Fold:
Amino acid sequence: MIALVESSPTNAGPNRNGGDLAGLLAAVASGDRPALARLYQRTSAKLYGICLRVLRDQADAEEALQDIFVTIWNKARLYDRAKSAPLTWLSVLARNKAVDRVRIKRIATGGLDEAAEFPDDSPSALDVLEAADDRARLTDCLEQLEERYRSLIRDAFVDGASYPELAAREDVPLGTMKSWIRRSLLRLRGCLEQ
Amino acid sequence: MSERPSLTPDERRQLAAELALGLLHGDERSQAIALSREDGEFAGEVARWRGRLAPSLAEVEEIQPAGHVWEAIERGIGGAPADAKIIQLNRRLSRWRGFAAATSAVAASLALVLVMRPPQALQPAPIAQPAPMVATLASDSSNDRLVATWDPARRSLIVAAAAGMQPAVGKDHELWVIPAGGKPLAIGVMHPKRPMRMTLPMTMAAHFKTGATLAVSVEPTGGSATGLPTGPVIAAGALQQT
Structure:
């Protein structure tokens, strides 16, 4: 597995893995199909793992992965190596696509307002800004939260769970869940921005 | 309208974190997305949160997908890279030009939009409404999406398009407001790359109330010469109270 922050742009010196992936993304942006195949070989296990984690269903995760690579094919030119490492960008893209799919499933089952749940397909939705010490900071700052809140924040991001879902999962009123998370985010932000 | 009076700087930062985490749903989420489209600083904050939280994805276990997934992707990309696809789409649109005379079809499609998105309230609302309104303009047949935000206090309208909505060569996208039960009124021609920002005259602003629909049609360069849409409607959505 490739460490995400090793290839972070703010790290001095070229990183071979990150550099290769960035080069592949540039080739994909220019319509190079074999480059997409190589990118798939290198990253599909990572991105499929993320899809399965969010969607918890093989067929859904496979469809999400297809969608992700078609998006990569179409949007690779939006990747900016000055902003984030390639695997970070790809992982966040995969996570967001998988979460979009969860939302669409929710519309089908829960009768939620469709217009309010549409995927955000603006270019800025694919924007990821990373700093060299993000990983160390996140680990440190999550450590400072109580275990319960730490796992809530993790679940929200990694599983794509929204406020109502988290409230149902923990069996607390929605308002309680919102105030827990908001308080935790405030503390997390205070620590991360130090 | 980049600064909503109701949000303090702290609340904005909190909202950026909530959007990046995926905690928001429904109206809260669409409003936050609209804000990220019209406010680069807010969008940057959301991007920063994605970067901050991304390391937690590094812990997710790698799993090899089945072989048929790649085959489906190869079929999905069909040999055409992104930019070539836009050109193809433009070609298809230019072929449609031949059918532009069929204005009755356009009227029918506008009527369909109105039927599909029924007005929520038929009573006329007061002209000066303090709360901003939003509309999500979407199409059933394409991925084109726009978000419109309307600030009645300043009569300020912002319409931001998703990527890939450039009109074909020799065409423009024109924005219309369709009052509940009324005829489309031209608001203006959209810039092919930039969000549309304008202050509307009082007479036009009066039509921006619940029940009105915003629609984008494909028109000859410079906009429809007839005062009514002449080309296909590519996106439409109802104006709603925030």
